[in-house]
Amino acid sequence: MKTYLSKLMAVALMGIFAAQLPAFADDDDDLATSFGTRYSVGIDKKIIKGLHVDFEEELRLDGISALDKSYTTIGVSWKVLPFLKIGAGYSAIGARTADDLNPGSMVWDWRHRGTFDVTGTVKAGAWKFSLRERFQATYRTKTVNEWQQPKTAMVLKSRLKASYDFYRLGLEPYAFVEHRLLMNGAEWDSRSTHIYEYANSTFIGHSDVYTNRIRAQVGLEWDIDGQHAVEIYSLYDRITEKEIDAKKTKPVLKMPVATTERNFIAIGIGYTFSF
Predict the structure, then answer these.
(1) Are 156 and 167 in contact (CB under 8 A)?
(2) Are 233 and 221 in contact (CB under 8 A)?
(3) What is the CATH number of domain 2-274?
(4) Closest of 181, 118, 131 to residue 155, by C-alpha
(5) Comparing 25 with 98, which gets the higher pLDDT?
(6) Residue 2 main-chain phi, psi, to 5 deg
(7) Strand-pair partners of 162
(8) 3-state secondary structure the chain
(9) Which of 54-63, 200-209, 212-221 has the lowest mean pLDDT?
(10) Could you tell me the pTM of the whole model?
């Protein structure tokens, strides 16, 4: 009876969490909401016990048909202790962005991302709880206006995850919440919304630290036979951005610095082959 109740609780928890994702996005009708889909294929190679190398190719679409971004990632993870894992990775990211030289056209903006993370895990029966801290640095090859954004964005992600393992079925539903902290945003000495005050602002540097995304995600991982695994999921992002309109030739604001928020919802599916 106790096992049955635990399973029922797990399913109920994930179901309630999934049902709330659209509600989160609808809590402010003034915010813009966009939708996307994601598809990935990965390979996980076990080198020795606790040491794995993985490769993944992911396509992110704007809606269901327009390619928005591609992620090619290679990583390594090492289970240092039964409850502690460290990892590092590299991603080549292609993003479709507006062409500054040809208005109305799109070009590929290539970015390079390095990550390092530490994950602690606690198990309680079939339940598993984990906290992952990930530092990432993303370098943009495209020329950017550094009075508005850094050439290399430094981000700290903190993810709290809960999952339940239906080990006999190979099913593991999960839910997590992730906080993303931008650590080196462009900073100006004025945040005034008065139209005549922004002209006297000066650029301080890339020292603005603020939360620019909160993510909630629910999904289901299915380990089919120990080699083939499938994951389906739905996510909701609440994104906060600092809108800075500054001249590219020298650090002079043209408009006051403004903070904007928007919603993003996506569904995705992924496949992994392990050996």
Answers:
(1) no
(2) no
(3) 2.40.160.40
(4) 181
(5) 98
(6) -65, -40
(7) 129, 175
(8) CHHHHHHHHHHHHHHHHHHHHHHHHCCCCCCEEEEEEEEEEEEEEEEECCEEEEEEEEEEEECCCEEEEEEEEEEEEEEEECCEEEEEEEEEEEEEEECCCCCCCEEEEEEEEEEEEEEEEEEECCEEEEEEEEEEEEEECCCCCCCCCCCEEEEEEEEEEEEECECCCCEEEEEEEEEEEEEEEEEECCCCCCCCCHHHCCEEEEEEEEEEEEEEEEEEEEECCCCEEEEEEEEEEEEEEEECCECCCCCCECCCCEEEEEEEEEEEEEEEEEC
(9) 200-209
(10) 0.86
> With left for phi above 0 and alpha for psi between -120 and 50, is residue 170 left, alpha or beta?
left
Joined tokens for residue 115: 């990550």
The token pair at 47 is 């080198």
